[in-house]
Structures are given as C-alpha cells and as structure tokens.
Amino acid sequence: MHSIVRPGSGTGSDAGVIGSSTSQGDVEPPPVSTGRRLRVLLVDDNERDRYLLKVLLEEQEEIEVVGEASNAEEAQILAEREQPDIILMDIRLPRATGIEATRQINKRLPEVTIIGVSSLYTPHDYNAMITAGAVAFVRKEDAVEALYKTIHHSTRRYRRDRPINTGRTTQRVS
C-alpha cells in the first residue's frame, strides 16, 4: 500500500524528490499565486493511486486535475486535448511505458512539464525518464508533498535544462 503524505505533515521539506541538491540544500517556496490554476494530468494504471493523488492534489487551490489516463495512449490523447501545464507520469504502464509516453508527448507538446512518478524504479528508469523529457522523478510513497513542491519548481525555473532538486538526493543518478 502506498502512503500518501499531505503537504506540511511533518515529513520534511524534501520528501521523495529525486534530483541534485542546491548549494544550500534549501527548497524554494512556491511561487506567488497568479490567480491561474495549474492544470495537471494524472497518468497511472492504478486507479486507486490516481484517485488518491487527485483528491489530495485538488486540496491545493492552485491545482486543478484536468484528466486521468491509465495507459500511454490515453495519456497522449488527453495531453493533446486538455493541454495541461503538468503531467504526472507513472513509469510502469500497460502496452507502452511512461518513458515512451513522455518521449512522445514531449515531441508533440514541448511546453508541457512532465514529472515521473513511480514506486518501483531503478537508476536506469530515472535516467531514461529525464532523457525522455521529464524534469523530475518522484516516489509515490512520498507523493503529495514532494509532488506539490516539484510541480511548483518545474513551472518556475527548471524546464528541460536540468532535473528538479528540492534537496533530498544530492547527486544525479549516473
């Protein structure tokens, strides 16, 4: 069973984000609200995980979940139709992987920020997601708090040039 952590629940400011550390190891605060909600597409073959993420993310007033996909094909269709700001992409999907879906969506919609999400991953998976165009990789076990921070970081300054860092891991996996 995956544990879902609510933002501010005392699990640490860097829960679950895989990336490289800043010189101070600090997490930047979320951006000041512009009044526009961030549009998020959830892609995960596990319906329960999608539901939990949706419920918890939508507790954040600046986040709107605009769609849910259970496989790579649905993800590509919904991404083109909904034009989300962020896609939370599970790496393990039926028929085609989240890595391949990330690659395809990144080709068609380079302005969309993709964040890899998985409970089972290897250093190869991490590197493959980043190479395919994801800006970060977050463990499901630490999902909501880490995703909340990663979503805000990815829309602010870390687009395609480097992976996200919110302080947990100090080096990029090689």
Task: Give a short summary of the structure.
This is Response regulatory domain-containing protein. By secondary structure, the chain is α/β, with parallel strands linked by helices. It contains 5 helices and 6 strands; from the N terminus they run ββαβαβαβαβα.
Write a structural description.
InterPro entries: CheY-like_superfamily (IPR011006), NreC/VraR/RcsB-like_REC (IPR058245), Sig_transdc_resp-reg_receiver (IPR001789), ST_Response_Regulator (IPR052048). This is Response regulatory domain-containing protein. Keywords: Phosphoprotein. It comes from Nitrospira japonica. This protein is α/β, with parallel strands linked by helices and 174 residues long. The chain has a domain of 119 residues: 3-Layer(aba) Sandwich (Rossmann fold), CATH 3.40.50.2300. 33% of the residues lie in helices and 17% in strands. It has five helices and six strands; from the N terminus they run ββαβαβαβαβα. It has a six-stranded mixed beta sheet, with helices on both faces. Helix 2 packs parallel to helix 3 and helix 3 packs parallel to helix 4. The N terminus and C terminus are likely disordered.
